[in-house]
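Work Package 3 (structural annotation) set out to generate three-dimensional models for the target panel prioritized at the project kickoff. During this period the team completed the workflow that converts sequence records into discrete structure tokens, so that structures can be stored uniformly alongside our sequence database. As a representative example, we reproduce one entry of 444 residues exactly as it appears in the project archive.
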Amino acid sequence: MFSKILIANRGEIAVRIIRACKEMGISTVAVFSEADREALHVSLADESYCIGPAPVGESYLNMAAIISAAFCSGAQAIHPGYGLLSENARFAALCEECNITFIGPRSETIAKTGDKDEARKTMRAAGVPVIPGCDAVSSVEEAKEQAKQIGFPLLIKARAGGGGRGIRLVKEESELEAAYLNASREALSAFGDGGVYMEKYLYPAKHIEMQILCDNYGNVVCLGERECSIQRKNQKLIEECPSNALDAPTRQRMIEVAAKAAKAVNYRNAGTVEFLYKDGQFYFMEMNTRLQVEHTVTEMVTGLDLVKWQIRIAAGQKLGFSQEDIRLDGHAIECRINAENPEQNFRPSCGRITLLHIPGGPWVRFDTALYQDYFVPPYYDSMIGKLIVYAKTREEAIRKLQAALCELVIEGVDHNSQLHMELLSDPEFKSGDYYTDFMAKKGY
């Protein structure tokens, strides 16, 4: 086992990883930008290093500075968390070259699945069902030709990156050229790669993802699914586990397909296989080669600490359980608390936390890096916390989450907790019969 791990991230996920390390008796190293000097993860870590000014390109994406901090501290491994460098094949390869363990899959696996166009080809070859569409297109003219074969409506999607960037819905041919150019420009700006591909827009559909754990010895275990259909502009807002849309036979088929997808790319560590589900059929969308924001709901219903298992796998340990040991017990729901104003087109908010009260009670969890008098900086993602609850039934979990939201107090910045109260009270959500167009239908 490692004796010291560097966390190449910030905010609540850095705090989450530090806590897991402390429980495992592992020393931790934090890295921080000048804007995060007073951040909670810096205080909780055993040592810390400033890696640059506020902009992420000069700090949290500064590979040389992070590797230097690892050398200076003597850290044997780097945990990238999610976002930032977590799915960067070049950074994973750099860690490998420097004899530092990257807590995640191998660099070649990240490269293979990070190119979503290439990932589709790999999954097709492995017999995994994919959404009907085409491979990467390099011009408007080629896109128009392929669109005739696919049919409208369709999605133009960036082949690199994630987080909902570089995606455009095209309802008819007249919209295609502008959508293609805009998606390509956004992808180039966000990921340094303007390549896009197209696929059929399936609706109404559900976004369902399968959590996998794979060790270095060929053992693959799927920890069940998460329902992630409540999204605004392809950004998830509410996630739950399990999904009440799946019956037992369908869940079993998805588990088997997720395992097949993992084996097709020789996967290692924690990852997620994402599907669209419609009318009893499911289709591969992409593979996320990292820990997901919403890993918490899987932890609540399986009783497994995914971060600890990431670390154990990276250290060379075998999985201590098999697929037959996995049981989804009860129901968990997470809502993302963002510093933004839903009434002003979700305008991001920053400022000093003047009052903070975190909900409590049995099976209520709030993952955050907030504390009283903390200044929420304007430079980073707007998510400031994740409120997660667990109960024996979905109905109980919804009520518990509503109660916890009533108790949550965050003053000093705008946030979206009231929006979550409204969403949880919506009859469509409460019935479970909701789809990825839920937020758009509500006017968001």
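The two ends are 47 Å apart (CA to CA).
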